[in-house]
Design brief:
Layout lengths: L1 H22 L8 H8 L3 H9 L7 E2 L2 E2 H7 L3 H9 L14 H8 L2 H9 L14 H7 L3 H9 L14 H9 L6 H14 L27
Antiparallel strand pairs: 1-2
């Protein structure tokens, strides 16, 4: 009798484990058709795919449809996805939000749309970077200005203590740097306030070039 009870108990345990496994949700994969519709800027196709049952929070390599829409600056699709339940501050596997992707690619209209829908300026990825840091790291002066105008904290730092000015300084000394990168540094220094001239690049041994001496006037 005891053996029978043990067998019944074991059978019940096995069935419970199997049931739990069935209840575990498998990751919902974002279809290639949805990605294509977003990249090509086809709002009607996006709606059709959602109507057919495509999950608004489905992912591809950790990123949702809203990530792809923000990165490509598709404001109509951003609005559709959020209206259908997409989370405006959803983070991928690295903590990257749609706002951060829009900042990296310089999509100002997408940023304005996301902020209007409640996107948070100070959300950080796993490195502690926010949208302002990322815009600066990619040399997007217009985006940096827009984010600061909306209240982004110019003194916010990453996990390693880097602020937006450090990102701009690092970019300015990289191969392929342009005059626009220098302009971004000058702009940030004008906004940074006291201590701007003491901020150094995080590149070991880096020293900002001294200003060229003024030519002396001929007597």
């Amino acid at each position: 009798m005891k053996r029978l009870i043990r067998c019944v108990a074991m059978a019940g345990l096995v069935m419970a484990l199997v049931s739990c496994q069935k209840e575990e949700k498998k990751p919902v994969i974002l279809s290639q058709e949805m990605v294509k519709a977003i990249v090509q800027g086809n709002p009607s196709e996006v709606k059709q795919l959602l109507d057919k049952g495509e999950a608004v929070d489905a992912t591809q390599n950790g990123q949702t449809a809203l990530h792809f829409a923000a990165m490509n600056g598709k404001i109509d699709i951003i609005s559709i996805l959020i209206a259908r339940g997409a989370k405006v501050d959803i983070q991928d596997d690295q903590g990257v939000t749609p706002l951060m992707l829009a900042a990296s690619t310089g999509k100002l209209d997408a940023i304005q749309t996301l902020l209007a829908q409640g996107a948070k300026l100070e959300t950080q990825n796993k490195l502690g970077e926010n949208a302002l840091h990322i815009a600066s790291a990619h040399g997007k002066k217009e985006i940096v200005e827009a984010l600061l105008d909306r209240g982004a904290d110019i003194h916010a730092t990453t996990n390693n203590g880097l602020n937006v000015l450090v990102f701009a300084l690092n970019r300015m000394v990289q191969p392929g740097a342009t005059a626009d990168d220098t302009l971004l540094v000058k702009f940030l220094k004008s906004k940074f306030g006291a201590g701007a001239d003491t901020v150094k690049s995080s590149i070991p041994g880096y020293e900002e070039p001294a200003p060229a001496p003024k030519a002396s006037k001929k007597k």
